[in-house]
Design brief:
This protein is mainly alpha-helical. About 65% of the residues lie in helices and about 0% in strands.
Length: about 130
């Protein structure tokens, strides 16, 4: 994604072309769920087709609970550098705002300092630390 953001460079054009091919033109069946669960693509013109396809794939998974979305966000955090989490953070913020009631229930269900909300707070705190 970092190369593809700057689609004017030769590397950026190649990266964007490859990502576009894999996500919009030829999503292999074995990758559909993984593409659906990635952090959203940047909200830039040259990523719009990929964002639409990813949303379509996410919707094909069926309803996702707030707890599942928190788990998805945290699992992606273990797989990619902090600097690539911007779109995931924006998406998570919007999801939390849309599901305030469910978030309130998750907070009430917090068992002995465990649960998705505490894990989320810990994950967000780790994002504030320098990546090593």
């Amino acid at each position: 994604i970092p190369f593809a953001r700057h689609s004017v460079s030769p590397e950026g054009k190649k990266a964007l072309s490859l990502i576009t091919f894999l996500v919009t033109e030829c999503v292999p069946p074995m990758l559909r769920k993984q593409v659906a669960l990635l952090d959203p693509f940047p909200d830039l013109k040259h990523f719009s087709g990929m964002r639409e396809k990813q949303l379509e794939l996410r919707e094909s998974l069926g309803p996702i609970t707030l707890s599942q979305e928190i788990d998805r966000f945290l699992s992606m955090g273990r797989k990619c550098p902090h600097s690539l989490r911007t779109e995931g953070l924006r998406f998570l913020q919007g999801t939390l705002q849309l599901h305030k009631q469910e978030l309130s229930e998750l907070i009430k269900e917090n068992n002995c300092g465990e649960g998705p909300v505490l894990q989320l707070i810990q994950g967000l705190a780790q994002l504030c630390l320098p990546y090593s």
